Amino acid sequence: MLEFRNVTKRFETPGGQEVTVLQDVSFTVDDDEFCVVVGPSGCGKSTLLNLALGLVPISEGEIVHDGKRVESIVSSDVGYITQDANLLPWSTVLENIMSPLEIRGVPKTERRATAREWAEAVGLGKFVDYYPGQLSGGMQKRCSIARTMVYDPAMIYMDEPFGPLDAITRTILQETLLNLWQTRRKTILFITHDLVEAIALGDTVVVINGQPGTVKARIPIPLSRPREIRHLAASTEFVELHTKIWSYLEPGVESNAGELV
Amino acid sequence: MSTRVEPRSTTVALDGEIVAPKSSSKSSRDRSWRLKVSIGQVVAILAMLGVWQAISGNVIPVYLISSPTGVASDTFHLIQTRTMWQDILTTSQELVLGYAIGVVFGVLVGILMGSVKFLSGVFEPIIAGINGIPKIALAPLFLLWFGLGIWSKVAQASMIVFFVMYYNVYMGMLSISPMLVKLFQVMGANRGYVARKVVLPSLSVPIFAGLKACVPFAMIGVIVGEFIAADRGVGYFVLQATQQFDSAGLFSGIIIMVAMVLIGMRIVTFCQNRVLYWQKLGHGR
Questions:
Q1: In chain B, positions 197-236, which contact chain A (CB-CB < 8 Å)?
Q2: Topology of domain A1-76+187-261, per CATH?
Q3: Rounded to whole angstroms, how far apart are CA atoms A206 and A222?
């Protein structure tokens, strides 16, 4: 379980001024929950992830992950998938997927076999010997997903992972991700600015808006699973959720109008 | 931590395409393009040599610019003499030693300054200040310190090489993606792993850029050293030829220097192609 308790983050600008990015953010991500944080750019949602991973220090409040306070870089049993694939350009697809296993001291033959399975699972089976520079953006993203899944972390943080991709590739990858998640349940904290993506993927959508960013609403998504993302937008349930979440994203909306936070 | 997991194969359509293998029509177009360029180069060089030959002795006296045929026969004659090979050997020694020492120290100091913020804070302005010295002005000092032999030339060359290498590596350290490093830390990598698998490979690009740039720089250092005071070496030979108004000998010496630099560059390029194989495959992202 991941808990944000009254988290506030302030940055000092190069000019010496203090800017509050996040104000008093509290919410909980349950085990095996797919939690999506949605908000416009500049609302501090990526900062939220960096705080949870211990990459930047918290100004006030605390983040507790499985009963432990986050104080430095979290590196046990968590995965991190970023906007850029961040693969090693000098290593092949297989070597990239193997690297977390190498870090964990898994014997060579075993890590080779496991990495190969995951390359297959994300559809890169034929490309294990390719270098990242030879792959399309979508394929690089697949590789980075495999590199995270291969060491089976209990919790995965995703920071707008499908942001730079075209709409078709994005939908296909969202479906891939959901399929993988359905077979291997994990806790996921997923950051996006794309409302459709948030509703399509999440069990819960946390809306963050404003400057400084505050939690406007925590909305459960009751859509049944497995979901067919490409047909989702047509359903009335989806449209209702979309309208509802939008209402919290309008500029100048005052905090949580009766929604449970 | 369990690592052996059984992913259920999901059916996924592959998006995008890989960089298409070069088709035969493209490679034949490539070849005819390269042929055209080569022919153009040969024509340009022949034209320049022709002009040189034509004005030599007619417009400008031979003792000032020699002539292509004069230089060719002189070079041909020179490389069959023992003394020229001794000069080449001496200059090569100075070149290789100066280059190697400058490169090693440049890389080490660059990595150190790039990884310890306090050190770079203290020493960056100092190094920048020292780099402001026109290094050639130090040649007489090196002569005093290291004597008439090869070591004053080695010092001169390594001094120039060091700064080029240092700045390449230091800038390389600063441009390593912090995101990539953080990602590997979250993945559980310790400092050693990050250094071996992320930092060093990232540095290979600026290191090779520096290695290439430094070959002619090392030659400048060596030749300046030999001009100041020496009793052998290609630079010494060129100086002698100049003093005797032997312009053919002077140009021959320069041709030999250029050949040495080009051989050095070939060696670096050969190594680069083996280490940076991944760079040629497609483009970044």
A1: 197-198, 201, 204
A2: Rossmann fold (3.40.50)
A3: 14
